[in-house]
Amino acid sequence: MSDDDDSSDDNVIDITNYVDYKKSSDEVELENFTNQFVAMINHNIIDRQKKDERDRFTYFMVNFVLLTQIVIVIVICFIITKLYS
Predict the structure, then answer these.
(1) Can you tell me the distance from the alpha carbon of 61 to that of 69, in angstroms, rounded to the nearest whole number?
(2) CA count, 13 A, side-chain hemisphere, 51
(3) Is residue 45 part of a domain?
(4) What is the per-residue pLDDT for 49?
(5) Rounded distance, CA 4 to CA 11, Å?
(6) Domain count, the chain
(7) Which of 17, 27, 47, 68 sits CB 3.0–4.6 Å from 23 for a disulfide?
């Protein structure tokens, strides 16, 4: 009896195999143009992100080197003051 209750969900008919949809040459050309355009936009976005990442990394490295130089100078000054005091 419970099997009969679930049979109402099996009434869906799949007709995708019977539909013959042919695209016209204009539609195919428009789809190819759209795909190429989107690929160019994505490529430009990726290039811009790579450039920004390189700039951020360069900025970080320059700041890191400057910070280490300042720390080294402070440590040297501290050592000199301890030696002569």
Answers:
(1) 12
(2) 6
(3) yes
(4) 96
(5) 12
(6) 1
(7) 27
Quote the domain boundaries for residue 36: 29-85
Phi, psi angles (nearest 5°) of residue 13: -105, 130
φ, ψ for residue 65, nearest 5 deg: -65, -45
What amino acid is encoded at 46 in this protein? I
CA–CA separation, 13 vs 10, rounded Å? Answer: 8
**Per-residue tokens: 82:** 């301890």
Residue 30, both tokens: 């428009």
Q: What is the pLDDT along the chain (85 residues), one digit of tens a residue?
A: 455 555 555 677 767 666 666 778 888 888 899 999 999 999 999 999 999 999 999 999 999 999 999 999 999 999 999 998 8
Which residue type occupies 34? T
Residue 7 pLDDT:
54
The model's pTM: 0.53
H/E stretch holding 55 reads: helix 25-84
Query: Any idea which residue has 């789809």 for tokens?
Result: 31
Instruction: Please state, in angstroms and rounded to a whole number, the distance separating the CA atoms of residues 76 and 55.
Output: 32
